[in-house]
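pinging the channel bc i need a second pair of eyes. not urgent but kinda urgent?? the chain im working w is below, pasted from the shared doc
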Amino acid sequence: NDTATTEIYTLSLHDALPISKQRHEKEELKYFCKNCDTAACQSCVFIHHAGHAILHLEEEAERQKMELKSLIQIQKHDLQAKIDTLSRLNEDYAKLIQQNDDIRRQVQKFVDNLIATIEARKQNIIVAVNDETKRFLETLTTQKTEIESEIKIIASSLEKADTILKRSTHAEVVQLKKSFEEIFQGTQSQPKDRYSEKLPALAFVENPKMLSTINAEEIGVVEIAHQTKASQS
């Protein structure tokens, strides 16, 4: 083989490849040398590939075509498998996002219900303290009104008595006791236990058990359930 005079041409397997060897460069390539992994004409087979494993080029081309088709088919299967895997990954991605949104909504709903329940308990206590306060305020208001009325009566009686005393002579003064008794009639002090009800000492008593429970317990947990593929079942 004289490499200095060799030219390489790339042609289709269905085309006749021209030979580049001097004196038989126009001969058609009909054979394939397995040892040299190259196509050859009849002259080259006898001269340069003597003793080599020689096959008909068309048969070798068909065989290699089948191998290439098989390789292409494998690549197609591999491509489709990757496309399918990518599709499943996209689906899983979307599912995870959806799960995240669903869990966040569930947590928010649960917490909102807890807050609403606690708010309702708070309102019950506020209503109770308002009712008790109102009841005692009404009692105090009644007592105040009665005392204020009595104060006005006594003040008026004292003013009247003081005026009479100033205008009376000594002789008249000694005769005024009965008149004063009539003036002050109905203004005598009431019994001390008349307003004996003591001011209530209202206080809020916390429920330490509830606070302790809230501090010690979680409102919930996130569970991770790994699904088993059908092929692993």
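so The two ends are 63 Å apart (CA to CA). and The CA atoms of residues 19 and 27 lie 6 Å apart. — does that match what u expected or am i reading it wrong
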